[in-house]
Write a structure and sequence with these properties.
Length: 528
């Protein structure tokens, strides 16, 4: 067993004595887990969930965002109709992991780090805490922050979305200060013993913190306080190339498969999911002047007859397909199961390194901010850099997965694609439709939180004034919305059922979260 998997499994054992949010308050002695660990050894399981919990919730968010669907023979699934599953924890894995897997463990790590003047570990902890509040407020709206880890309480009041954004910003700014420090007991070798994301390199964590600040501040795009210059400055302080990408390698040593890629065939979580017509049309030339994206055949899956098709979330079985025309799953075959594990496409392979944040993603953030600022020259440069970096990202996956059925995108293919004005126009004619649709492609399959936030910031179907087209070209809202929606689109996921709707109902009533249509209330951050 590798050092990474041994540390991860030890951490998992330390954290798996309970299932529900309320159980993190249990302070009884646990004879099956360590009672005291050094600050650095808290990190492996938390980093694991930093990568993995968004993929859990991505099964549901991805259907809201029409990344893929789960075909059914009758009425489409609740999530494809922008609904939810009552009395279920579906769509709340990140809630569980922020409050429990991170929870008091992260608080203890930061307390120890501060007492020992390990400013690098304290800074990493602040980044993780800020990331947790960020993804939860973006996913659920009001969340519990002030009282979250008060062990004298059994019920917890919700804080406002405004407060959550304030806390995220404050934590990240403190993290930046601490990650810049070299005094005290700052020690890369010590941090590296538990840090499998960046091997103890605090300068890379510093760039990650700036990346989160850029993403956080770009969410204010509908507010009068939006400051695109500040967003650009944060991006420029963050990743300088794809070498800075935050990538997680699955060790594949655990017999229970917890350290395998959640999207891979061995875990068995995605064999029935299929790509949508929406994402296909973004890449097959339908939405971009007939230009076929060379990433299409490397990211998406062909039908048995070799043609590429997508499914419609509004139709039973995703459409009227035959056994030869229905899209294969992301492992390249039509059946839900296959006796021998097969090399998956793109991010759906067991061996894949999974991104948490990428250079391409941040360059798209910069492109949007610069465009909104009116600096189209900077926007074009960042946009072209982002598309180019993502093509390289796709090539790296093809090489790693060893998929012999598809070669890497050649330099000639890449150059021709980037030279086409339908993809990369002159600066004066660059549009939000191009920036945001290409960002969608680059985030497809992994960055579900940010991808869904992008769609919601543009209310799914907002029109780009420059192009007269939707910002997200070709996105169509469900024709058979979930009944509780009352004809409205989804903008949040209800709080986690098993902890909140069972144990914390009074607090839910205070924010009206027991209203069946609560999930359709627009988030504060996307309102003017």
């Amino acid at each position: 067993m590798t050092k990474q998997s041994a540390a991860l499994l030890a951490g998992v054992l330390m954290l798996t004595s309970a299932c529900n949010m309320e159980k993190y308050l249990d302070v009884n002695t646990n004879p099956n887990a360590p009672q005291a660990v050094t600050a650095n050894l808290y990190l492996p399981p938390m980093e694991h969930w930093l990568v993995t919990s968004p993929l859990y919730d991505g099964r549901f968010i991805g259907r809201y965002a029409q990344e893929y669907i789960l075909p059914t023979t009758g009425t489409p699934t609740t999530w494809s109709r922008m609904g939810y599953d009552p009395t279920s924890d579906n769509g709340a894995q990140q809630w569980r992991d922020v409050y429990w897997s991170f929870g008091q463990n992260l608080a203890d790590m930061m307390t120890k780090a501060q007492a020992e003047q390990r400013w690098d570990i304290l800074g990493v902890g602040q980044v993780l805490r800020a990331w947790g509040w960020q993804i939860l407020v973006d996913e659920h709206g009001p969340i519990i922050i002030k009282q979250a880890f008060d062990q004298t309480r059994s019920t917890f009041d919700y804080d406002t979305e405004q407060y959550a954004y304030f806390v995220v910003d404050s934590l990240l700014n403190e993290a930046v200060k601490n990650l810049k420090r070299t005094d005290g007991a700052v020690d890369q070798a010590y941090l590296a013993k538990g840090d499998y994301l960046y091997s103890g390199d605090r300068t890379k964590w510093l760039k990650f913190a700036y990346g989160l600040l850029a993403i956080d501040h770009n969410h204010y795009s509908n507010k009068a306080s939006y400051n695109p210059t500040q967003v650009i400055a944060y991006v420029d302080s963050s990743f300088v190339s794809s070498a800075d990408n935050a990538m997680w390698t699955f060790s594949q040593k655990d017999p229970n498969l917890s350290d395998y890629n959640f999207l891979g065939q061995t875990r068995g979580n995605f064999p029935s999911y299929r790509q949508t017509q929406f994402v296909l049309n973004l890449m097959n030339g339908t939405d971009f002047g007939g230009v076929v994206d060379p990433r299409l055949t490397r990211m998406l899956s062909a039908s048995p007859d070799g043609q590429y098709r997508g499914m419609d979330p509004n139709i039973a079985n995703g459409g009227a397909f035959t056994t030869l025309t229905a899209p294969n799953n992301f492992y390249g075959f039509p059946a839900a199961t296959r006796p021998t594990p097969n090399s998956g496409r793109y991010l759906f392979d067991d061996k894949v390194t999974m991104p948490v944040m990428t250079y391409a993603q941040l360059q798209f953030v910069k492109a949007e901010a610069a465009y909104r600022k009116g600096d189209k020259a900077t926007a074009l440069t960042a946009y072209q850099t982002a598309v180019s970096a993502h093509i390289d990202f796709v090539n790296a996956k093809v090489a790693l997965n060893g998929d012999t059925s598809e070669h890497q995108i050649t330099s000639t293919e890449k150059a021709a694609f980037l030279a086409n004005p339908a993809i990369v126009p002159p600066a004066a004619t660059l549009t939000l439709s191009q920036i945001m649709s290409q960002k969608y492609i680059a985030q497809w399959g992994w960055a579900h939180n940010e991808l869904w936030m992008d769609l919601r910031r543009y209310h799914y179907t907002d029109i780009d004034p420059a192009s007269g087209k939707q910002v997200f070209i070709g996105f169509t809202t469900p024709t058979n919305l979930y009944p509780d929606n009352n004809g409205l689109l989804v903008y949040r996921i209800r709080p986690r059922y098993n902890s909140e709707y069972i144990w914390n109902t009074a607090a839910l009533d205070a924010i009206n979260a027991r209203d069946p249509a609560y999930h359709t209330v627009p988030l504060w951050i996307i309102q003017p």
